[in-house]
Amino acid sequence: MSKALRQKAILDIISKQKLGSQEDLIESLNALGFSVTQATVSRDIKELSIVKLSDPEGGYRYDIPSRIKDKGKTPEELLKEIFSQAVISVDFAQNTVVIKCYTGMAQAVCAKLDNANFDLVVGTIAGDDTVFAVLKSEQSAIELVNKLNRFF
User: For residue 59, what are the domain limits?
Assistant: First the structure.
């Protein structure tokens, strides 16, 4: 079978299953009739820019690049999706909104927040599990916290 078919199968498998290792992916591909080696799967993962994310349940899983998965969705829809998967809490102090995330997820949340282009947000910064968003005023922070809390 062709490389294009194999890579399409990889994207399909990862979108439907929580796989945490190349061995799991190889087994799934073999079950579909693809005879692959670890080196082939490794190259495919790299070419497809597949990422390995920490899972809220404590493990790891492969995920499809957002540029493929997110086609056709609005920035706010994408922000809602990442919030439901990655955010623990949202609060504010004066004009700063603090978003607590599962370990390793803050940068993804921050990127989606930036892409949402909220007019009241002056800037954002993300660590491993926390996002800070600076807003124009305390009232703006309150409005954003209320909006973001509806995403849970």
Answer: 3-68
